[in-house]
Design brief:
Alpha-tocopherol transfer protein-like, CRAL-TRIO_dom, CRAL-TRIO_dom_sf, 6 strands, alpha/beta
Length: 312
């Protein structure tokens, strides 16, 4: 699927070479690995028989070309598509509900370029302090929609992800409406079902409410992710991790404004409208799973552990 807007600058030259090494990607054997994953999919009665090559290749990269890890990730990805209709259905960016969030509630665009070590940066910030419970769920849905677009459009692959969270408008009313179940489902998606190599999370414009937010979220995070969260009192400290010039203008950079980037990504999500609709049926069918079907109550139990899901 080739669409009219290319928002992600693809790494090239030495950066691309470093990424290949970090991802253990051999250009001579990667399509053999891709063929093996496609053959495996066809043999799984509970999973889709086919899927596009590009997202499968992205899963291989996110699994450092470990076929077994890739299989587990894919199984969980299609399982979550079936288990979380609140995230994976009605993904129409032109709907009034999603348009309201995209235009007036939050911004979360991935930035065009990559860092010198080949990592993609995404900046998330609120533009309105109030979200109701459904809007929080829809915000997480939109984040996963962006993730799905990147499955298709990270053509060369990246060495990992950096997220910058601007907490300037994070207020107590938002904390009061956070559902532990919804947050846990989202964290399982991000940590177990998507081929994301989360390298760093940076929080800027902090306030006392940020500590309460982190206390709420940390139980749902793997230990190695908790250690990758950095809080900065000054914006300049962030530049030690993300070059200033690749940041949006609001943060001292040169890649355009947050509003411009958000508008571009909104248009991108709209361009994928038909693709998202076609994905509704591409999910796991637990009635056909060999052995014991996935128990969603066990999977999402708030008192449960991530241990049974861990993929290192």
């Amino acid at each position: 699927m080739k669409l009219k807007t290319d928002l992600l600058v693809q790494p090239s030259g030495e950066i691309s070479k470093k990424i290949r090494e970090e991802l253990k990607e051999d250009v001579n054997t990667r399509y053999k690995d891709l063929a093996a994953i496609k053959e495996w999919l066809r043999k799984q009665p509970h999973l889709p028989d086919e899927w596009e090559d590009m997202p499968l290749l992205t899963f291989l990269r996110g699994s450092s070309f470990s076929l077994e890890k890739c299989k587990r990730k894919l199984d969980m990805y299609f399982t979550m598509r079936a288990a979380c209709p609140e995230f994976f259905t009605n993904r129409d960016a032109t709907s009034p509900e999603l348009r309201e969030i995209l235009k007036g509630k939050l911004q979360g665009p991935p930035l065009p370029g990559v860092t010198p070590n080949g990592r993609r940066v995404t900046i998330c910030r609120g533009v309105h302090p109030s979200l109701d419970g459904q809007q929080i769920t829809d915000t997480l849905k939109l984040a996963l929609m962006v993730g799905d677009v990147r499955l298709m459009e990270e053509v060369q692959g990246v060495a990992g992800d950096i997220y910058v969270l601007d907490a300037a408008v994070l207020g107590p009313s938002l904390l009061a409406r956070l559902s532990p179940t919804i947050v846990k489902k989202f964290m399982i998606c991000v940590q177990e079902a998507y081929p994301v190599k989360l390298k760093e999370v940076h929080i800027i414009n902090t306030s006392p409410i940020v500590e309460r937010f982190l206390t709420f979220v940390k139980p749902f995070l793997k230990e190695k992710i908790r250690k990758r969260i950095f809080i900065h009192k000054e914006l300049k400290d962030l530049y030690k991790y993300v070059p200033q010039e690749m940041m949006p203008e609001e943060y001292g950079g040169q890649c355009g404004t947050m509003e411009e980037l958000q508008d571009q990504w909104t248009q991108k999500l709209i361009e994928y409208r038909d693709w998202f609709k076609a994905q509704d049926s591409i999910k796991a069918n637990e009635s056909l799973r060999p052995g014991k079907p996935t128990n969603y109550d066990e999977l999402f139990g708030i008192d449960g552990s991530f241990r049974q899901l861990s993929i290192d």
